[in-house]
Design goal:
The complex is a heterodimer. Chain A is 41% helix and 18% strand. By secondary structure, chain A is α+β, with helices and mostly antiparallel strands. In chain A, strands 3-2-1-15-16 form a five-stranded antiparallel beta sheet, covered by helices on one side. The mean pLDDT of chain B is 93. Classes of the chains: A alpha+beta, B alpha+beta.
Amino acid sequence: MAQTVTIDPITRIEGHAKITIHLDDQGIVRDARLHITQFRGFEKLCEGRRFTEMPALTARICGICPVSHLIASGKACDALLAVRIPETAEKLRRILNLAQIVQSHALSFFHLSSPDFLLGMDADPAKRNLVGVIQTNPQMARDGIRLRQFGQQIIEWLAGKRIHPSWIVPGGVAQPLSPEKREQMLAGIPEAIDITQRAIEWFRSIIPQFSEEAQTFANFPSLFLGLVTETGALEHYDGVLRVVDSAGNVIADKLDPNDYQEYIGEAVEPWTYLKFPYYKPIGYPEGIYRVGPLARLNLIDRCGTPLADEAWAEFRLLERGAVLSSFYYHYARLIEILYALERIQQLLNEPDILDTHVQAMAGPNRSEGIGVAEAPRGTLIHHYRIDKDGLITWANLIIATGHNNLAMNRGILQAAKHFIKGDRIQEGMLNRVEAVIRCFDPCLSCSTHAVGQMPLHIQLLSPTGEVLDEVRR
Amino acid sequence: MDGPVRVKTLKIDDRDVSGREDETILQVARQNGIFIPTLCFLEGLTPIGACRLCLVEVKGVSRLLPACVTRVEEGMEVYTQTERLQKYRRMVLELLFSERNHICSVCVVNGHCELQSMAQILGMTHVSVPYRFPRLPVDASHERFVVDHNRCILCTRCVRVCDEIEGAHTWDVMGRGIDCRVITDLNQPWGESETCTTCGKCVNVCPTGALFEKGRPVSERMKRRRFLPYLTMMREERR
């Protein structure tokens, strides 16, 4: 008899989602789907508000990456003002964005995913969490907490508070950087770099133990999309969009982010609230692409900082062409942390970083504005239209996790087919299916959830909806 | 005023205090460092007793009296912090919060708002009545200022300052009950108002984020109100 296995909710991700695995009469996996079960409606509730409120309003979309929304929204507002912001303001925004990448990647790697690597995919779920990491490898737990704290601390020093700061404003930033804060930031960087290099070394050492996961965790050909600099280096704040194929060939380069609607379409499916963006020239659903750390490292010709460039060169040796296994998102995250720390150091040493002219003043001059930046999880697009008084009439937001929707769905199907056989469902198998989703570090909601607190509810359903078996933890 | 001003002695919260006969309970309480919460009251503007936060109990009087418009009387015994008053004050705040869309986290005056601080001071931890979530407009037609009716508590400070201090009377009130709203001129867009002098007094006396200046983002708006006592004092001296 055909059956459906439901994993609801998925644990150790940011947000609410469930997975259904559809078995056929022989108990073979036929289909698997990721359902995003929450609905927010931000685009609608922004309508009628003044555009100057948009950075603060859209930052509330997320408690993990409010900074990313502040950046993309700030840039969209700059476009409405039709100004180029002061150089120092741009550099300070860059530092904030990089600090956000450090803290968010550290959260994803150490707090949410390291339990799987350290304790194993089959370990007891009661121990497979951050507390388990503290017991097994206290040094790693300390490192993770320290690194995330450093990222958050930079955000607080720059913007006044760690979560939902209101420092990014249309036209620049609200306050300049003080010399004392600059010294404090510079002083913390060497330790953070040490931690990151230690983690990269450790991750490299465990890759052989996870070869089965690396082969089956959303490991398939797809396109990759993201921002790069004009000269092809790693970029998170500005730049141009590039698309590469699975062989690593650049198929589109120097795309103007303002024209995103020409090459990104959004499809809707009735069983999830999350839309499916796709690469328009290829169509839906074949135009599947991935964004985020893995995509960014596949797109670039180099990182642009010495230590990260070394780590990146070794990373690209994993596979010929683009690195296709989503398992390596974790690896890519660590390399990006290294890059971010080095880059923050460079920016803090720029001669004009303490300049006090940090905001361009102007009223609304254009009726439409687009802001594109790289969030920790990938390309983030904010697009607004305003009336003559500066009130929002229409808004479109494409969040990084959305871009990866097609890939996440294909990824769980691949893992389910490999790890789930027959009607017997084992804990470690389900965790692997969840772990595929965790590779993408999807940010589905607005807040951090307590690690390991969420109960996992699995139901085995007959085609008529009858509960055949049930497991709770 | 004819004749000498008389002094009245009374008790506020069991403390012996005295005030001139033309002074209100609120004035005498503040002179003696006794806290009575207010929202619609602002030093320098005519008190109207609208918000009901300054309600006090007076011995021998069965109803509650607004301290901002009640004159002191000889032998009065006033209580400002009884359990009944605290309960009513919290309820007044809950009703204000539920009536319109007071979303502090994304409000321009977050951290500098009198409604928000009053809720903190009076211990309003939650709203027990359902929120109404009305759909209210934002008027950003004025060159420098914005009125966001979502954040308005109808204290009418803007109406009074515009009329009594600036003398323009651009602001007024329209409608009754739940449909009540502050308007500029004859309910025209603020930007089209012919009487508005763009002085900004209304923006600076507004206790919430209902009136704010363009160009300042969320929680960056500090209201500057020190001009008000000076203006009032200067005018009285000239008379």
